[in-house]
Fold these 4 entries.
Entry 1:
Amino acid sequence: MDPKTLLQNFVNGLSLGSLYALIAIGYTMVYGILRLINFAHGDIFMMAAYFTFFFVTLTQLPWYFAAIFAIASAAVLGFGVDRIAYKPIRKAPRISALITAIGVSFFLESLAVVIFSGIPRSFRTIFPQFLNEMIILGGHMEVKYGQEVILGGIRFPIISVVTLIVTAVAIVFLWWFIYKTKIGMAMRSVSVDIPTTSLMGVNVDRIIGMTFALGSALAGVGGILWAVRYPQVWPYMGFIPGMKAFVAAVFGGIGSVPGAVMGGLILGITEVMMVGLFPGAAGYRDAFAFFILIIILSVKPSGLLGKPELVKV
Amino acid sequence: MTVKKRIVFTAVAIICLIIVLYLSQEFMSSYYSRIITLIGIYGIMAVSLTLVNGISGVFSLGHAGFIAVGAYTSALLTLSPQQKEITFLIEKLIWPFNSIQLPFFWATLIGGVVAAIFALAIGWPSLRLTGDYFAIATLGFAEIIRIFALNLNSLTNGALGLKALPDHSNIWASWGWLLVTVACVTSLSYSSFGRALRAIREDRVAAQAMGINVFKHQLMAFVVGGFFAGISGSLYAHWLSTIDPRTNTIGIMLTFNVLIMIVLGGLGSITGAIIGGALFAFLSEWLRFLEGPMNILGFKIMGITGLRMLVFSSLFVVIMIFWPRGIMGRREFSWDGLASLFKRRDRK
């Protein structure tokens, strides 16, 4: 691979990775508090893309209203899922919570099939066209077969850069929220020790709900950016990105937000690089993430930045 | 109740079942006998997953992967060489499969064995993990199997899948294999091996301290579960007469369906798994009216596709929240239990 292709792949991998990171943060925050793999997270991501699509189609308002609406709805949806499905079984064994989460995930998917129908919808018309145009750095113009063609140079879609900027802003916001606000402090406290936190006068259920809402809002941002990048929405679009983001969260050390970001970026870059190096293996790119997962889980289950979990008998 | 009596009762029950199945095949329409066949197939899937998820205390989400392995293996063995020539458009099928054809029984058995080998290969690394990590790892492996099925054109025909499989899955095949499955899983779960599994399920560390080799026992259960999943995959493929490697047929969706069956029946009960499988087969046919055109209070509405899955998934979540024990809980059907039920009735 020549350096230019390498750089090109690097930018694309970085932006794909930042999408994984956005979703992974939601997994890791919920896992940090409840020790629950929130299977429904990928479907909230899907719902956010659908909300954007239908908001624009139905109201004809500009896309930024739709984005705000979709992110807010994703947050409400995440909060609602926690209230309706997870709160009643907080005391149940962990495995029942996992089964319920799988059920919720399929509920959201079938709900999307029923409400929005299973036909994939094109996202192209929703967002301004320039996002999918290419940025070209360097290179030179030449006339080939009577047409002007740009040769050489690095090219990547504008959306890659936009994704990176939006992710960076979202992560800064998240950092501010977790470390500088009272609710954030309560969240950190809940993740360490739930009974003690509730003795301190914190409404634990509310804080858990807020965590779901915050994670879902970030998944919503990811969902919209994803739908712009791969301009199609359909009810099962959340499964594979959701699973990969989960892999990223485990890779970075589940429970750790910086770990999730790091894991997401590494996973995105390696995935794009792998496809770049072995174009023949492109069909297996979805299997690649699971391979990584299985390797990490058997070598270092606590991930890059996670703390090993001790079980007391 | 003496052992002799129990054996007599069981034998009589099996003979009654055979008579009922025979009558249903003779006198019912082919539509109903297909559903009865499906009940048997779902029963095998559910019982084999119960052995893993309900009895041995690990939670696998990879069942569809083994079903797929069994389905592909047996389908490649039962299709005639000419048929395979026609089907494999993208790339030619590789050697041994392109020239052999086996009877359905042997193909199914080999499908089960290959699935068991896959289960061994997958269980070996995954069973070092516990709880939800194991669930995710098996889900990952099942997804890898599906992605390979989608891409290995010279073995699985890639995205086109396999079509026009011979229609071998009849009532006798599916219920016969169900009987074998139930007999094997029940005797396993009541042997010292099964008791060890239950001990691991209740408290892993305590079981280990009692000298039970947790890894070996769980791996064994996983492999047996994989074997019967492969059997059910073969039957299912020949029932459907096609194999389609997309998510909705042999992907996570299928694992989810089997999970609904065993949760509905009661996680950890073999009887419950069969009841759950039968209910699922019955409900998914009966609820078809939801997806057809309907007439509600004079309003004509068009059929809504996907409504059945919505009903199932909401039912699933509601069961998990309000009724986590399901129909049978962890209880099993037994003649003694039935007898005591009647005695209690009499006293009243």
Entry 2:
Amino acid sequence: MRSIVKKLGIGFIFYLLLVIIFPFLLSNEYYLSVGIVIGLHAIVTVGLCLLMGLAGQISIGQAAFWGIGAYTSAVLSTKYGLPPAIGLLASAIIPGIFAFLLARAIAGLQGYYLAMATLAFGYIVQIGLTEWESVTGGANGMISIPKLQYFGDSELSMYYLIWAVVTCVLIFSLNILKSRVGRAFRAIHKSEIAATTMGIDVRQAKLGAFVLSGMFAGISGGLYAHYMGILDPQPFGLHESIKFITMVVVGGMTSIWGALVGTVLIDSINEMLILLSEYIPGLQGDVDTIVFGAILVFIIMFMPEGLVPRCRAFYEKVKAKKRKAAGSQQAERKTVA
Amino acid sequence: MAELLQYVANGFVGGGIYAIIAVGFVTIYNVSKVINLAQGEFLMLGGMIMVSLIGLHVPYGLAFLLAVTAVTIFGILLQKYVISYVKRATPLSLIILTIGVSILIRGFASLIWGKDAFALEPITSHEPISFGGITIAQQSVWVIAAVLVILLFLWYLMDKTMVGRKIKACSVNTKAARLMGISPGKMAGLAFAISAASGAVAGIVIAPLSVTSYDVGVLLGVKGFSAAILGGLGNPIGAVIAGFLLGLLESLGAGYISSGLKDAIAFIVLIAFLVIKPTGIFGERSVGKGGL
């Protein structure tokens, strides 16, 4: 037991406990659904964090992979009657293939060119989902997508299923972070030229980062489709992509935990705003857009490293100060003696 | 044949607007290596302020001047108090910052003006003009005239005046420009002012062609950015040509293939071009790989 704690770290155990007891702390259908949505978003943002924070590649089209995943699973299970398990598997593979093809094509692009290409890809996918009516149902969308019933029909079982996936994705990503691949990603982030001279296949590594983040987004999309039961192309556009970026940036791009914290934070703020707008009817505009825009601007201007790395640095500083204070006290005692 | 001419004429009008936005992107990028993704919001602000002023019975000409001035001041303030304050600016953080600014502006616009669409009276009458088998709105002529005036003015400013030389000096080498007594900060402010003003003019002249609302800036900004990238970032002439090209492509795509796929066609062509030639059709003029 001790070795497991040591291996995973106290933070991870704390996370697991929190995830497990959350439904009992706030045993309410509404909070449970918020928890599920946070979990779905977290799967996407952890992948996006691998791509943006570690490998340093921007993607302003992440919601496209999310959408492809959602529609893949929905179409397979609704139109072709395949079991949702196969649909979910496909919803990881098909977006992965899309990400691979996109990354193959644009692997040579950097900075603003990459941003533009991913932005364009996001638009193309959303338009494609809307226009390909025979398969996706067009702007009207799809209905009666079967629910996942592995552990019963309840909301609670869905919650645990999704957070189990989040945990797997998290462990996988944290392990990547410590591996050769993770080090290669970080080297590319610092300097592609330096990484090349160290013998890293930059193209291959970028491809890997894109495919991984695309697959994560796809899995989340598949789960989203089966959770919601209905789908339309509206949530898979630029707005959602920007929201994913906000989540990653707020928590701290360079930290996987940061992505998770950012997701929880942004989704909670979102829910709070929805509640507030019920009490204050004067808020007719997009208050959430204002809040998220302000958060993005504030973070980039004053805290570009994000919340989690900043808190960690603060904690280290306090610890160092304490140690120093303790050390000087000891030294004083010695001189007195 | 008449059909084709009609599509070309429509594409020319749309393309002109994209060209102005793209030049706005390039002007700012050249001086400060910033891609201002809030560029489209300048157009939105121009159009919406104009609508409000006309609603207050301000004369057309005065309203036009006031709207352009307001947006210009906004652009300068944006550069001075937000963009130039970013620590450790990388393309990644600048993209995120300007996205943040743009959604912030859009949010406030939705609070101020609501989510309804507004119509702006055209400069001259609603009567369309037809010649040689094609029919265009009178306002389209004004759009094209405005586009040409702005482009000519920018060319004159950049190539013939001292201010233009200073801006160019900053884009070639910021440090050397500073040593010559040019303030890069001031030039960056000027670049923001120029692109905000031209964006506002563009936003005002296209508003009567359809309707204007708080969210028209998104797609316009993205299209302008596409044109700037397609033309080779930092290359103003490339940006103008790419802007017109994009407009034509869209209009032809909407006419001959499907109007729903109009935007997708433009973006597919964009990605295809980037795959074939990663630095845009005409190549980059300034150094650096997209700012990295």
Entry 3:
Amino acid sequence: MKLRRKLFASKDPYDCTKSELFLGACKENFTHLINNCEDYKKICDGLGIHSPDDIKSPADIPVIPTMLMKQHDFRSGRYMIMATSSGTSGKMSHVRFEFGALIAALKMSIKVTRYHGIMSFRPCRYIVMGYKPHRSNKTAVAKTAYLTTFLAPAISRRFILKHTSDGYKPDFDSIIKALEKYEKGKAPVRFMGFPSYTFFLFRMLEEKGLSFKLPKGSKIMLGGGWKQFYQEAADKETFYKLAKKTLNIDEENITEFFGAVEHPILYTDCSAHHFHVPVYSNIVIRDPDTLEPLEMGKTGLVNLISPLCKATPILSIMTDDLGILHDGSTCPCGVKSPYLEIVGRVAPEDIKTCAAGAADILQGVKV
Amino acid sequence: MILFDGKTYESSEQDRLLTELEKRIPEILAKKQLSPEVVIEAVACLREDLLKGRFDDLLSSFPSDVVETYKIQAEALLSEEHLHKKLETELGNTFEYVTDYIKGFKQIRVKKMPLGVLFHISAGNMDFLPAYSLAEGLMTGNINILKLPSADNGLSLKLIMQLIEYRPELKDYIYVFDTSSSDIQGMRKMAELSNAISVWGSDMAIEAVRGLAPTGVKIIEWGQKLGFCYITRLDEAEDADKELEGLASHIATTKQLLCSSCQVIYLDTSDIEELKSFAGRFLPILENAVNRNKTEEIGIRARDTLVSYTQRLKGLLGEEEKHENVLRGRSCSVIISADNILELSPMMCNVLVKPLPRDKIGEVLYKSRYHLQTAGLICPEEDRRHLAELFTQCGLIRVTKASDMSAYFPGECHDGEYALSRYVRIVNVEE
């Protein structure tokens, strides 16, 4: 995995001159996968991609939909840790990472967070708008949310989703109490987690007529997507206004992350709130009818490509998001790489069928 | 949302309401019996309001031509006349009678009575199935507990609430829960309150229900079926192209999601070359039909594409050489397969084409006996009767024209039985 090492060692996380290195690292990863994962090889052979020589561009790499990963467990070699997707619709995919992937991910995280000024040595208080770690929760979202609380030294950590006997429940009241305390202190506060809960918190504060002046340097970091709250999804302008109004946090101190357990690349929005594609990945937007690659500016299925991981064949995956890839060369932030806009999701996955086996009824339940 | 005693409640109140239901059921059973006339009247009111356009808002999520088709169907099928006819067809005209006197024996009164409590676990693949299944339970006088499918869009509940609005006495007989399928305790409790469980779904769903049901409860299964089309002497069939267009249109409109949908097109041949030439002829016809029925909604198109791509990859994982002959069109494909197994296609307009010479029909269908339902025919007129007989002898329930495989025929049974007759019991009382 020489080329992967080289790619993830790139100094500039948005270097646009590394496309050849990227393709090379992908081919290197592909070679490993077809030699170590029989199922992956079967798929590649079936799709007519038999060797790395058949790959002329990242778009040629066989695409594995996350939909399939939720139904089929792929393995391609030894691993150190396993993460699962959060299973919005009840099914999860399992992704395993080997040591080399973790090192590459760590290098990437340091470079990207440093680039965006999120790494800091100033101690702060964390409010995680997500899951409190619990042994029963293996989701990557819980893990990454927790990990981000190490980007600056933590004085304290509070979690909005508490594990109760009935599963996870949001506990807004304890967060309000904490805010009352933190407002009087000096340490900056960092919010981290699901945008949906953060937005609900803003709305609740607004309805109750509450507002806080949090210490300077406080930040809001958003990740994990809007999940089942798509219909509630606030437009970003409203979100920024409410953040200012209720917590006194300015727009430039709000950062959003995008990623998926099946594509653990850290996408961080720039000052213009665009998710530029870093050097570690490529994105192909595909035609919703034919899966052929689309040109920039067109809406389609989002195909995410990265040679980060060896232990699971996630080299080229397709999520059930719909997105647009925009030309980034004129973005005021200075990064030239294209940027991704997620515009929605495909219709619910549990398609209505009796022939396929009324998937929604007692799926997988053995009683 | 829960519908209980004519009122709606939050899903979180399920446990309390189920406990209350346990007390209510014996009271209702002992008190009175629901007359089918009440149900027929309520349904007829629903039909009238539907035709007047009172529910147009509710139906706005459907394409306008679909709404039109639904209205035409509702006009005929929900009429008092048709419902009376349905009662007579499905329960017979011997609802209550006294047996003839036979020397040496006493006479009895024979009567059809409701089973008691029916628990409906409905599938989400037909837009009005949950409400329809409930209406059948009501027409036979049963108390109905309905578990909505997770894919239900709120339409079922609204229609059911309308029925109660027309005839408030129905409220004692209707309990609708939006329980999740993973709520085993809730499902088990509902099963324990019931005399019978009417379950629509896959083999897996039915197996799970069998596991969850208490011993003694009657399980009324409406299981997963596989439809196919049988083509013989295509060039001698009257207007073969039109027949093929009908088949393509059936595939494109049902997207192969229904039990009656065509999964496999069988040709009366064992010659693979003949299959290939048929596939080449059929692909553009299918492509046209798919294009005509294409939805503009990008989320749905993308999902359909993802589902069929995922199915295709699953096929590669299973038997990598099996589907080597695939003719791909835009948003559809014709997959040539040399075996003759009746199986699920990748769906979403990806149809299998297989050889099935006439002398092999019995053997192939026997292997699929648990999943047989509909066969569509494309053949010369003089072969129709013979083939229909052959197929029904081999276990098929419906034999139709290829274009009508999923059509509704008034008076038809479902999976070989009349639903209403499965929802009643026969009692004998000595005279």
Entry 4:
Amino acid sequence: MQQTNKLRPFFENLEFERDDNHMVINFGPQHPSAHGQLRLILELDGEQVVRAVPDIGYLHRGMEKMAENMIYNEFLPTTDRMDYIAATANNYGFALAVERLIGLEVPRRAQVIRTMLLELNRIISHLFWLATHALDVGAMSVFLYCFREREFAMDLMEDYCGARLTHSAVRIGGVPLDLPEGWLGALAKFVNELPSNIKDYEDLLTENRIWRMRLEGVGVVPPEMARSWGCTGIMLRGSGIEYDIRKEEPYELYDELEFDIPVTDTCDSYGRYKLYMEEMRQSVRIIQQLIAMYDDTPPELMAHAPQYISAPKEDIMTQNYSLMQHFVLVTQGMRPPVGEVYVPTESPKGELGFYINSQGEPYPYRLKMRAPSFWHCGILQDLLPGTYIADIVTIIGSTNIVFGEIDR
Amino acid sequence: MMRPYTPKDNVQAKAYYTDRFWVAPRVPEEPVPEEGVYAEDLAAVKACCKVLKAYIQRGQLVIYINPEDNFEALKVLKEERWYEMLSEMSAVDFLAERGGFELFYQLLNLNTAKRIRVKCFVEENQAVESVNPLFRSADWAEREMWDLMGVKVNNHPYMKRLIMPDDWEGHPLRKSYPLEGDEFAQWYEVDKIFGKEARDIIGPENRDPARIDRYDTERFARLGHEVPRGAPAEEAEKSEETPVRYQEEEGVFLIEKFSPERSKVLERRK
């Protein structure tokens, strides 16, 4: 049945037979260090990269299209699948965008829990980054240590919401559940132990000769390039520009919390590595403050907005009107006002923004997700030329891209 | 009975019921204040091109301009007002209502932490100027916009599909493009690998992951009524019972059966 002549592979507009000494090689899409489905078409002169063309789209699921065909609450679990390393950051970004569109105030306890989860996710994501980055560069034992701590953090997530990767723990209007018994104690134990673990990683890496040789001066992103390419998060702060959305455009409880924004102007992978370590310490600091805040909060978890948000379960089961509202909200979906918002949040990878255009329908008219990795992947075409092929893996690892949110 | 009319220009999901008297509320559009950062930004844009409309929505300035002025306006905002980062740009499909797209450029000033959305309306086949010389981030954003929405961009250095395959037909994010794909999308792999003539043999893609076909002896076994793989379904109907045996019953090399009595449960996490 299979006709052999139809199976001829095709390479888009690429000449493989060349007269000069340049060689074209394909990196990925199944390369273990490509952090997902990245295909890099590299033109090499010896071992030096002359031209790099990142080719994406291998994980494209059409999330923006799906969003136009789902009611708002239905779409929330889909956002888990963007940056699947830190799913709560995506859930939260989407929930916050819808809340801004509606103009909703979230109860304080929900805010505390959400901020806690966001920071816990930041730790999970940074640990994962460090583990895989170190593994890419060749430090196997760091990978094992980081994954041990990440397991504990994911156990905490699991204790709270039942899922380890795709949390959906944040809902539009608040959080669905209060913290379980003893969870805060376990969280406090985890974050109190983490700094000593971070010190262990640093002992293994920071002054390690091989680590420094592989990272220092590799993947230099000048500040102009970072601005022009729309780099955010650590990619921006690693280039000496102090901009953190949590500080500059505070959302949730970040304006009440004390934390520092680490910045470096070395612009290279080594500087970014140091920022990641410091950010984990700051997250620990934030979580410790939040644990103290939790006890003084009233027990409400979801915003009271009957037109948009279902009433608490107890009301639904006892009060007729709440049940009717719930029925309409589940079967038809909420109808946010006509208008558009762009809401940026600081995800572990950078600026995660949701642009929602609503026409007053239960389905978003257009939803555009601004994923930080998309731009951090695009920058590779300017960043890689001139580097050596051995550094490519370091540079890809240092940009911390994840393909769930590049292709969406 | 009449078949319900479904408009072809927008095939996305729609509310199945809307109250006749429902009037959708609107997100307030506040006027731009007389003084402040946004007033100066707006004045700078007004000095270089025509501003159709400007207002503040949820704390961000929105400026409508003509599509021909997009490069000029963004240049002024970047060089005179230090909006140095193009955090996002894309299009919204209004082909059904107004015959065109609404483009938005989401800009960020890193010093004042202010955000501006510059918007313009383009007709279906009208092309806009690439802002790639100003912001490198527009490189991929414009490619994605062309790929998924079909908005043309002039003077882009490498205008090629970004996310969909190069030989794709159609622009998937348009409202006229169905969620499950058009005919081209549904037969893409079959046409490409085996040729159009193989469509009948292979058949349409099964989009129900839970579907079980009891007559399909290629992919499904019938425990207790085994037939050779690919045997006609009638044979399966007629075949007598085959005994069900499990491999583990005789024991598998190196594998032990789980027994709760012999396993140990830890008191607490190590």
